[in-house]
Structures are given as structure tokens and as C-alpha cells.
User: Fold this.
Amino acid sequence: MNAARRADIVIIEQASAALYIYPLIAMRMLGIARWKLAFWGHGAQFNRKKPQPLRDAWKKFWTSKVDHWFAYTDLSAQTVRDCGFPADKITVVQNSIDIQELQEVHRSLSEKEIAKHFDELFGESRRDSHRVGVFCARLTRLKWVPFLLKSLEIIHRRHPDFRMIIIGDGSEADRVRDFCESSSWCRWVGAVHGIERVHYLAQADVFLNPGMTGLSILDAFAVGIPFATTDCRIHSPEIAYLKNGVNGIMSEPTEAAFAAAVSELIQSDDLAAIKRNALKDGKQYTIEGMTRNFVAGLMKALGS
Assistant:
């Protein structure tokens, strides 16, 4: 609080459960504080399927009680505008992570290295008819792992040359392990971090994540992989980066519909173009761009 008294602007997370935000908002509303107050956040709670009316109403009430908003994505900004907050006081930062190293390592890989790793994974040489999917995230309930595995079975029946790599660990790991032990065309490699992910991502033609989507979409775009998901209604704000049919696909939230959409994509004549679009967008949503957006919004909020 002492630091806030000396500041020109105080930026706080839009977290309803964080009790420290309410004295700050009250001081600003009552004119006690001279500094400006801004929220940084999603605009709403996206990662739950069942509505919680009281919690949502509480969050919505406080959404407009600040001077400026730093919204994660365009989806967050729309959510804030829907709460009655002025559009000219919202900055979209385009939330990102640092994917530059992933991009650089991916560019350095040769076709020979990629082919060698495919052979090490699946014990066979990669043919033109092979298509490879990848999943890279925590293996949690919100990722719809059972849904993913059922969809993979359908895809493989339709396209026997389809291969799958699952990267990650978590509460659903045993389910994934059992599936891969009985499916020689699917490999689970456990948790892989940092640039080591590139060697697996580089194999893929599509990134499959039917459940909650967050910043993993940028891992896909970093190496030019189309992102495939469903309209599951529990996505984080970064789902705004997905352009259906342009840099990825979004299907209805059923295994049959998802499998059909992915099968169509990997056999489509447009696959190469969609990969190029994904790679192009990977250069748009960067930590450098996010920083520039934040600084511009900060100056605007201060009236500079």
C-alpha cells in the first residue's frame, strides 16, 4: 500500500478472490487515492463449463470500477466492453510467451534430423503418406484426455498411416500410458520442457487439443503447426488467436466431429497453406509485441 501511494498508476490482477484489490478500488472510488487504477486480466472466468451466477455477477460488478483495462486478448476486451467499460480505455496486450528460441531451433533442424527422430520414435521410415499429430500440455481433466484418445482411435481407423505423439504429464498420465501400450502408432514421451519440445513438435502436421486451450496454441504456431480444438466453451482467452480454417480448426465438441475435422485437415490440399498461416501468426503473437502493446497502453492510461 505504501508503494501504491507513491505511484502514478497501480495495475492489479482481476482476481475476485484476492482481497487486497478491494481496498485499492475503494480508495480510488472515494477519491482518497491520487493514482490511477487498472486491471490486468481475462475479463471473466473462462475455464469452467457450468456457470456460477453469484461469482460471475460479483466479478462483473467490479470489472468497471477502474480507470483502465489491460486485456489479454480481443476476446477479453469484448468481455470487458460487454460489462459497460469504455472501449477507449482498454488495451489489448495480446498475451504471449517467449517462443523465439523455439522458432530458432526449429529453423535449424534439417529434414534428415527430423526423419531420423521419426524412425527412433516409431521404428519406421517416414513416408509421404504419413501424417503426424501432437499434443503438448499438462495431462489434466480440463484437457479432455479421454475425448482425445477416443478421437485418435477414429482418426487412425480412417487414416492408418496416422501417427501421434503425446507430450506431457499429470493426473491423466496412466490413461495415456495404457492407451499407447496398446497402440503402436501413438507414443507418449512424458513431460518435455524448453527447446527439447522442438524435436517432437517438428514431426507434426497438426496439434490436437480438444479441451481447454491456452498458451499452448503459440507452441503450435511457433513451428508452423495448425491447431485443432473443439468449441468446448472452457477455453482461455488465447483461443482468440485461432482462425478456423486459416491457421487451425475448431469442430463441434464430439469425438466424431473432432476426428472428422482433423482427418479432413490432414488429407486436405490446403494443409500446406494452413501451416504457413500458423507460422506467420507465430511471428505476430510474441513477447516483444506484448511488451509494445503494454507500454502503449500504459502511456495512454497515464495521458501521455
